[in-house]
Write a structure and sequence with these properties.
single chain, alpha/beta, Helicase, Ruva Protein, domain 3, 2 domains, 5-stranded parallel beta sheet, two-stranded antiparallel sheet, 52% helix
C-alpha cells in the first residue's frame, strides 16, 4: 500500500475536517440541517469568483458547437454522474442531438446507479474512452475531478489534449498541479465539507452549478432560446406540450386554442411556430428562414 495518494489528498480543502461541524453526530436534527445549510451558503460566492474562467470555458464550447464539434464531460463517481446528468438534459431542453453533449463516467452506465470504488484509479481506461470518441480539434473536453487528482479523469483529459481538443479542468481545490496544461482551469474553493471528504455535498453542488452555467450559456449563444424562453425544446411529454403552448401564447399573444393549432401546424416545434406566426409563412418557408439564420430566432424577428 503506497502513501502516495495520502500525500496527494492530505492537504486538500475538500478532505479537511470542518471545525464548525465537529459535533454534528450528537446535535438535534434541526441543528444538523441548519449547519449543512450554513455551509451551502458558501457555494454560490465561490462559484462567482471563477466566472472569468467559466466564461473562457463557454467560449471554447460555443466555438466547438459552431464548428460542428461536441462537448464531452469525463469524470468518476459524483463528478462523472453530474457530467452525464447535464449532458442528458440538453436534448429535451434545447432540442439538440444527444451526441452534441456527452458524459463519460468511469465504469460506464452501471456506475450511474451503483458506486464502484477503485475504477477512478484506472488511468488507461480514461484515455481509452477518449480515444473511442475520436475527439478532434473541433471538440471541447471538460474533465471533472473535485480532488484535482483522479487518475481516470486526468488521463482522459490529457489524451483529449493530445488529440487536439480544447480542454477544461474543473475541480474544487486551490492547488492544481497537473502533468499537462489544460486550456482553462476552473477551481471554485468550496472548503471543508460538513462531513469530511463527502464531496457530493458542497463540491458536488458547485460542480452542478458550473455545468448548468456552461451548457445553458452556450445554448443561449447558439440561438437555442428566445429571450429566456425555451423555444427549441422537444415536446416529448404532456407537460412539455403544454409548456410549448404557453410559450406561444406569451410570444405570439395568442389564446390557448390558437396556440395549440399553431403548434400542430409547426409539427410540435415552438421556434418554427413563432416564425410561421410573425412571418405569415408556411412550415417549409419557416424552416428555411431558421436555417438561413443559423437557428437564431432573434435574427429573424428583431
Amino acid at each position: 500500500m503506497s502513501k502516495k495518494v495520502f500525500n496527494e489528498i492530505k492537504d486538500l480543502a475538500t478532505e479537511s475536517v470542518n471545525k464548525r461541524t465537529r459535533s454534528i453526530d450528537i446535535l438535534p436534527t434541526r441543528k444538523v440541517l441548519e449547519l449543512i445549510n450554513d455551509e451551502d451558503q458558501k457555494i454560490a460566492p465561490a462559484v462567482k469568483k471563477v466566472i472569468p474562467q467559466i466564461e473562457k470555458a463557454v467560449e471554447l464550447v460555443v466555438n466547438s458547437f459552431e464548428s460542428g464539434g461536441h462537448l464531452y464531460y469525463i469524470g468518476a463517481g459524483t463528478s462523472g454522474r453530474l457530467g452525464v446528468l447535464d449532458a442528458s438534459e440538453c436534448p429535451p431542453t434545447f432540442g439538440v442531438k444527444p451526441s452534441l453533449v456527452q458524459g463519460i463516467i468511469a465504469g460506464g452506465r452501471r456506475t450511474l446507479v451503483r458506486s464502484k470504488e477503485g475504477i477512478e484509479d484506472d488511468a488507461e481506461a480514461g484515455a481509452r474512452e477518449i480515444e473511442k470518441k475520436k475527439v478532434s480539434s473541433k471538440d471541447t473536453v471538460i474533465g471533472i475531478a473535485t480532488s484535482n487528482r483522479t487518475p481516470y479523469t486526468l488521463a482522459g483529459l490529457k489524451q483529449a489534449k493530445k488529440m487536439g481538443a480544447s480542454t477544461v479542468f474543473l475541480c474544487c481545490n486551490r492547488s492544481v498541479k497537473l502533468p499537462f496544461k489544460p486550456d482553462v482551469i476552473i477551481n471554485p474553493i468550496t472548503g471543508p465539507e460538513a462531513i469530511a471528504g463527502s464531496t457530493r455535498m458542497k463540491a458536488g453542488t458547485a460542480t452542478k452549478l458550473i455545468l448548468n452555467m456552461i451548457t445553458t450559456t452556450a445554448m443561449v449563444k447558439i440561438g437555442k432560446t428566445f429571450g429566456n424562453l425555451m423555444v427549441d425544446l422537444q415536446a416529448t411529454s404532456e407537460k412539455l406540450v403544454q409548456r410549448s403552448i404557453k410559450t406561444l401564447m406569451t410570444v405570439c399573444d395568442l389564446n390557448y386554442n390558437q396556440a395549440k393549432k399553431l403548434l400542430e401546424k409547426a409539427e410540435g416545434h415552438v421556434k418554427t411556430a413563432i416564425v410561421m406566426h410573425f412571418k405569415l409563412s408556411d412550415l417549409k418557408t419557416a424552416k428555411q428562414l431558421l436555417k438561413s439564420a443559423d437557428g437564431h430566432l432573434s435574427r429573424i424577428l428583431r
